[in-house]
Design brief:
Blueprint: H1 2-27, E1 31-32, E2 41-42, H2 46-56, H3 58-76, H4 83-105, H5 109-143, H6 147-155, H7 164-198
Antiparallel strand pairs: 1-2
Length: 200
């Protein structure tokens, strides 16, 4: 019995590792949206983590998010003293854990859709709070960059941004909503096709 459990654990670890590497590679492909400053870029690296959360459990999704960002720091380096990677881990972890937890309670399409919708909302609210109270103030203090400089970069591409609150409301919130919707839609399309591989 122990040998079987060890074998299963090895299989799960292997799958998590593969999905983490895939997420890291996808993370390298990023671009700002039309209403976001250049330092806020979107990518689809939450996709392997969400698939992992659905197939292997919500904590597997969180582990994939963690390993993806760790790989990014080690292999590519960080331009933000790991603040950007921390933010990416928080946003991805909130999203995939929430969606994966709801899906695992009742594994069907309806549960998956509800999970991803709730996960997107939780992610969006969580990142709005984290950016306002922790991440942006920490980034400003760490680099000695005036908050006004960040606001000015955002204002250059988004006329609605005039201060930190409007930056959160008109940049961070829609950014995370769009990210969650894109990843959710792609997952809906491909999950059933690739889930048999992950359940072997």
């Amino acid at each position: 019995m122990l040998a079987i459990n060890e074998k299963m654990s090895t299989k799960v670890i292997t799958k998590i590792s593969i999905l983490s590497v895939l997420a890291f590679l996808i993370m390298l492909i990023e671009a700002p949206l039309w209403f976001t400053p250049v330092f806020l870029k979107i990518d689809a690296s939450d996709l392997p983590a969400l698939i992992g959360a659905f197939a292997l459990g919500p904590m597997a999704g969180v582990m994939i998010e963690f390993l993806k960002n760790l790989l990014h720091i080690v292999l590519k380096g960080t331009d933000t003293a790991a603040v950007g990677e921390l933010a990416n881990f928080i946003v991805g972890g909130l999203f995939v854990y929430t969606a994966g937890y709801i899906y695992y309670k009742n594994k069907n399409v309806k549960s998956a859709v509800i999970g991803m919708a709730v996960g997107t909302v939780v992610m969006t609210i969580g990142m709005a709070i984290a950016n306002y109270f922790v991440l942006i103030p920490f980034y400003v203090k760490l680099y000695g960059m005036p908050l006004e400089s960040i606001i000015d970069m955002a204002k250059a591409v988004n006329n609605y941004v005039v201060d930190l609150k409007s930056f959160i409301l008109y940049t961070v919130v829609p950014f995370n909503l769009i990210k969650g919707i894109i990843v959710s839609l792609v997952t809906l399309v491909i999950y059933k096709r690739i889930s048999p591989i992950l359940h072997r």
